[in-house]
Write a structure and sequence with these properties.
This protein has 375 residues and is an alpha/beta fold. It contains 12 helices and 12 strands. A 10-stranded mixed sheet has the order 5-4-6-7-1-8-12-11-9-10, with helices on both faces.
Length: 375
Amino acid sequence: MRATIAGTGAVCAAGSTATACWDTYRSGKKTWVRDASTGLPVYAVSDLPVVVEIDRFQAERGVDRTTLLALHAARQAVTAAGWTPETGFSILVGCSRGPTLAWESAYRSFAAEGVPPLRTSPDTTLGSIGFALADFFDVQSLASSLSVTCSSGFHALLHGLALLQSGMADRVLVGGTEASLSEFTLRQMEILRVYATPDSGEPYACRPFSTPPSGMVIGEGAAFLALERDPRPGKPRITGLGFGREGGQGATGISRDGTALQATMRAALATTPAPNLIVAHAPGTRRGDAAERAALGIVFPGLPPPVTSLKWATGHTFGASGPLALVAAIEMMDHGESLGLPYHRSQNKIAPETVLVNATGFGGNAVSVVVQGPV
């Protein structure tokens, strides 16, 4: 399982580009705020850059914020790869909850007036995200969206890799996007009793692998990767992939020892050198962090590689979380410097060469991806 990563793009609370995110990750600065409607902590995208073609497209189409964030991150990846409409490429985008704000706005109109807005159906479907990206880039190839809870972005990636491996495509834009900072969504997470309740002075509302667990904090964001079947000098490569699920009990479907993660990590590592860094899913919840820690201990007995997570800076961005972590892993390899947890000062920095990235989701879903630096 090999593919070249020709370009990347990212938008989240840590920054509006992959480079800006890197600067925030290194500085360890506070990126969370309190949601005005609920008072709950959130990781919101505060400053999108002015991009004339995106602003024009938004004005013409009125796309949901989920799609708007996707457009920014996807454009960065396509530009970095040097792709054009003439080049041609397929698009696969993962999103856990779909065009959340558009759907809820349409329902409020229906509840108040008894009639939904005219374009409610086409504008609130999950597929509308992929279709909008295809229209923006003016490509006629496959454009599709899929939802597999919080591992949605990585499921888009694994489907993209399948297209490349089968010969059905030479280039695939894959990634995840999520913009669900609505009162309804936040209250859904709060009622699960996994949401963090930090003091206002706390720099990191979400603290993966902390003791005691911090709890989950929702973030919004998007990240995309331009994948090519053929090697390209100087570009990182995906060299390992594992995917699966388990039928565990409870709200998440994830067992206490992370059975699915054990299997996916072993599958991803079967064709690659051992990683010298792991970017964990680690949402900051008691059960989620403990299950991943247990799975890591079983797959890497003895002295495991350093383990990190970036959710202290991004929050849990649902379907975008896997691609955001993978883009961060690539930035670490590009800069020759690992990023530890800023509240665990004892972690030693290394130069990442092979990185394992995990994503899990409700329903017991798990995906593990291995990325290696350029040869």
